[in-house]
Amino acid sequence: MGHVNERAQEAFKTLLSRYSEDTYFYLARNYLGKLQSPFHKPQLTAKLCQLFSQESMVQKTLSMLDSFDQVILSLLATFGSLTVEQITSLLKGTFSYGNLLRRVGNLQERMILLSDAGRLVFNPLLEDQLLQYCSLRPLCGEEEHHCVEAPYCSTEFLRGFFSLVAKEGKCIYHEGISQHFPTYERDRLKEMYQALGEYLTEMGVLVRDARRCTLDWQKAEALLSLSDYQLLCLLLSRNLEGTAPLEFANALLSTLQTLGGCDTTALKLLIKGFCLRYQVAYTATLLNELSTWGVLTLDENWQVSAISGIQERTALLIDSDQTISYQGNCPAGDILYRFAYLEVLDHQRTYHITKESMLGAFDSSLDYPTIKEYLETNSARGMNMSLLKQFEMLSERYQNITIYDGMVLSCDQRTANLIHNLPSLSEHRLVTLSPTIFIMRRDSEDIWRQVLKHAGQLVGATKSFDRIEILEKKELPILRDRIGKAKTLSQFTPLACHPLKPVAKASLDESLRQAIAKADLSKAEREDLEHRFQSRTILLPSQIVPQVLNPILEAGGFDYQGKVSLCKQAAGKKDILLELQLPDQELIVQALELAFTPQKEALLKAAVMPSMEVKILPVSKLFLIRLVRFHFA
User: Fold this and answer.
1) Which residue, of 101, 226, 379, 462, has the greatest Cβ tally within 10 A?
2) What digits encode the pLDDT tens for the residues 484-498?
3) Span 394-401, mean pLDDT?
4) What is the CA radius of gyration of the chain?
5) In a 3-state reduction of DSSP, which class is residue 348?
6) Distance between CA 49 and CA 18 in Å, rounded?
7) Residue 113, exposed/middle/buried by CB under 10 A (0-12, 13-18, 19+)?
8) Residue 219: CB partners within 8 Å, gap ≥ 6?
9) Is 206 helix (H, G, I), strand (E, B) or coil?
10) Is there a contact between 87 and 22 (Cβ–Cβ < 8 Å)?
């Protein structure tokens, strides 16, 4: 604990050392009182560090938290460090822009938040305690929801999808597809089917030509090695551009599973917030993606589908009509979908074995011994005997004729020994027809030719009677990389949904108010102290000293000079904004420059936030000007 506290103190000192002189001494004077000259800045930092390390100071700071503070703190705890602009952008639908700027600035004045190169982070000395007040509830609503049992794009769905593609030779949705997936709503199923077809074709899992659609079984099995959760993360990240799309999908999916449901405003907040955290480009189609893959369904509010954990598959039940059924989820590597066609994917999954499905399995290089071992392991002997007999008979007939698509290599005995014994040639040899005649892979001709040359062989040109176009095999490392990353994902841990609750409106320490009232102060000093007390930055009697940190905070009405003075104080300052009240609107502006006409009329050149549109405003036309310190750096 001491080591952690020491590390937090060093982090606190480092952050504070990067502050500008104006900001640093503003905070130092507020919490340490009048600074006696000469002073040594590292010593002042050490005093501030000691002050905020005291248990009594920590408890006073925490006691001043209110529900508005909790929203901003929960935002940072969920989405990581954010700029002031990002905070206001995320919460602008819930709070007014001016209120957000004032409150964010106030949290920095109270040193609950510190600036790290323009991004706000928790004060390291308070972080552990502050996190206890952070939750998804202030961001997504207090109403509790529970995940619902609803169909989504699971690995079981994907197995059925692959089985139907193998059966039909196409991956186009038609009305008959709905019969195989009765629990899936028709329009959702159509969207899911089309999206899968596009993505899996792009990734090379589905191979289309002019006649039919076939499967790359190796890539299909790689996809099915993922859990349902990992598969959904992969699918949700498919069209995302940015630094960490898979991590984004992981965080969003896990958070939704924790919430169980939310309204559209909260959902958009989560999507935009995690886009910022993982540097992913926000797109409005993300909400549609969540719906397409079955993660969300809309019923007044968005309901989240329960992503099932590992539910072990029951033993296979084999009926006399050659249908096979089971409950639960198949493990990775299960091969049923490769030699049987899907009938129904419901609570009970049913597949049907036909002559065509058997031949398809053999065509995909799934041999009889492998199928036999699978059925004997996963079903009762009395059930599988008849089926195994049929498989064996069909396998014997299938092997009577073998058609290879490759290149015939005829050689002498010495070269044949090389082909048999060199490991670098084994993967390119499809079959041995005789001791000196081999069928070699067509798509890797360049590689095995080169291996033979390096072994000292003279390799002549291919003897051909008809020119055959050789299409280069396309490797798609992107799919392999994505599957590898999906497998290594550590499931994101969202915030707890039941945090410590701060008071709705923090009550101020009356003893401090009385101390300010009794202190020997000038009018300006008393007003400044009262303002800081109301802002919850006066927490200790030692802070009540005769000094003025904010000479003028607001001016209005006929106080023309006061308004001019405020504009001068804010002009050119990046950490101070002005809140302006005009006859027909209220603006938050960054003061750029104060100029005067020949008639001595003051004109304020200001950038209106958040658009930063530049306007020239006569100071005399402003009813009220209020200074807002919103950013500390």
Assistant:
1) 101
2) 989 898 888 888 777
3) 86
4) 35
5) strand
6) 15
7) buried
8) 203, 204, 205, 476, 479
9) strand
10) no
